[in-house]
Amino acid sequence: MPAPLRPRPAPAPDLLPKIIMGVDPGTQIMGYALIEVRGQRVDVLCYDVINMKSLGSNHAVKLKRIFDRMLELIDEYLPDELAIEAPFFGVNVQSMLKLGRAQGVAIAAALSRQIPYVEYAPTKVKQSVTGSGSATKEQVAHMLRQTLKLPPIAEASTFLDATDALAVALCHHYMKGNNVTASGGKSWGKFLAENPERLGASTGKKKAPAKS
Question: Active-site residue numbers?
């Protein structure tokens, strides 16, 4: 009589794929990035910006654009967690208020899809990626190109907000998600798996994001 087959052990949690969305908030240009991590392996799915300079001075219109684009990205890539940079405390109070609203709208979009989030201070992000909390945007982009083997970026000045968002996502990976804020404990992907009738709300396709 053949010996009974032993059940195959489940993969270690660190080896399960996880998609992290990184966001660098802005009221004119907001950077975003999505990476997939499996253990120590990191694959960049996309990084780009939401350019709102053409939307004029109506802040409400810009906030809606952020919310709508965030939902598009979430439904396309199904991230498990959101990592977002905390606003830098500057002198201009009005600018700080607008930046805080932009960050809040991005977080609200994630929470509407039951995605947990965590904030990271700008100095923490720079420290984790470059080793220096006072690194410039250019230095962050240069280190990311080396670490993640990214191709040269022709329009680097435009993409510095995108690489900043990529740095936020990578910082969260380095932190192993230990600071994640619970929002129900489920990713949007898991929620869709358990609620297939909601699949109509998702784009259902993986495609290269268009610049916006």
Answer: 24, 85, 161
**Annotated binding residue 161:** yes
Own/partner contacts of 93-98, CB < 8 Å, gap of 24 or more, are 95/27, 98/27, 98/59
Q: Which residues 6+ apart lie within 8 Å of 128 measured at CB?
A: 167, 170, 171, 174, 175
- Please list, in sequence order, all residues whose beta carbon lies within 8 angstroms of the beta carbon of residue 53, skipping any fewer than 6 positions away: 28, 29
Q: Report the pLDDT value the prediction gives residue 65, as an integer from 0 to 100.
A: 97
Residue with the two structure tokens 């977002």: 84
> Three-state secondary structure along the chain?
CCCCCCCCCCCCHHHCCEEEEEEECCCCEEEEEEEEEECCEEEEEEEEEEECHHHCCCHHHHHHHHHHHHHHHHHHHCCCEEEEECCCCCCCHHHHHHHHHHHHHHHHHHHHCCCCEEEECHHHHHHHHHCCCCCCHHHHHHHHHHHCCCCCCCCHHHHHHHHHHHHHHHHHHHCCCCCCECCCCCCHHHHHHHCHHHHHHCCCCCCCCCCC
Say if residue 75 carries a ligand binding annotation. Answer: no
pTM of the model: 0.78
Per residue in 171-192, is it b (16+ CB within 10 Å) or e — as a string? bbbeeebeebeebeebbbbeeb
24 marked as part of a ligand binding site: yes
- pLDDT-flagged residues of the chain (< 50): 181-188, 199, 201-212
